[in-house]
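Q&A log
Question type: sequence-to-structure
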Amino acid sequence: GIKRKEDPRKYHKFLTDRERLIGEELLRRGILKSGLSTAWLDELMKEWEKTYNQFVQIFSLDGITTKV
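Response status: OK
Response body:
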């Protein structure tokens, strides 16, 4: 079989973790400055983190093989 060890982010144009965190913080500051609640953003980020972690777990498993 073919072992897959490549980083999936190499093939997809995702934000780096640093870029994502900076973007979240800028968005949060803008919302707070306008006097609005950030509760919806907090929930959105929790959902994104869950989905992101599942994606990373699926595509970064060392033992993944593909049978032809």
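Response note: The first helix runs from residue 8 to 11.
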